[in-house]
Amino acid sequence: MIEQLQSERSLAKLSLDYRLPSRLRADKSVIHGLRSNPRIQCDMFEALVGGIWKQDGYAAARRWLRPVFKPLIEQVYEQLRDNHDNTGVAGDAVTKLHEFCQAKLLTPVFDFDTEGALTKKVFTCTITIRHLKVAGQGTNKQKAKQA
Q: CA Rg, the chain, in Å?
């Protein structure tokens, strides 16, 4: 999910949403190519965030970014959920999480809780990576882990 949010494509789209390429100034012979280049669009968005951070600080940049990224996070989450539901591959989300964590030298910690009667148990899996916690529920541990 993080890769999709930080991708050149996603950041270039946000740049276009804020009409940043139209503010780019350059020689007439190259301006069209620069404005339509996704890498340049991505760089412009990153520069905007860096400017907010430098001018107003980390907390202000974070407050500004939350509503900017919220629709994108929801869209990526829906795509991931739909892909998982369509593939039916058990462990797919967990495998991707482990691959991501391994690449970033992070260690996910899985904790399970159980609620309910013996025949109607609900399992809750809480995944902790550094200070980030995410939880899911299911009718068994595997489903809770995938949720």
A: 20
Q: Give every CB contact of residue 101 below 8 A, 6+ residues apart in sequence.
A: 107, 108, 129
State the CATH number of the domain containing residue 121: 3.30.160.20
| pLDDT exceeds 90 at position 133 | no
DSSP state of 115: E
Asked if 21 and 44 count as a contact pair (C-beta separation under 8 A), the reply is yes
The domain in which residue 140 lies consists of 92-147
Cα 73–chain centre separation? 5
C-alpha span between 141 and 106 (Å, rounded): 22
Domain count for the chain: 2
- Same-domain pairing of 68 and 135: no
Are 140 and 102 in the same domain?
yes
pLDDT digits (tens, 9 = 90+) for 32-50: 888 899 999 999 999 999 9
Q: Which two tokens stand for residue 144?
A: 């809770």
Instruction: List the structure tokens of 137.
Output: 């529920």
Residue entry with tokens 């400017």: 51
- Contact assessment for residue 10 and residue 72, using Cβ atoms and an 8 Å cutoff: yes
| 45 in Cβ contact with 12 (< 8 Å) | yes
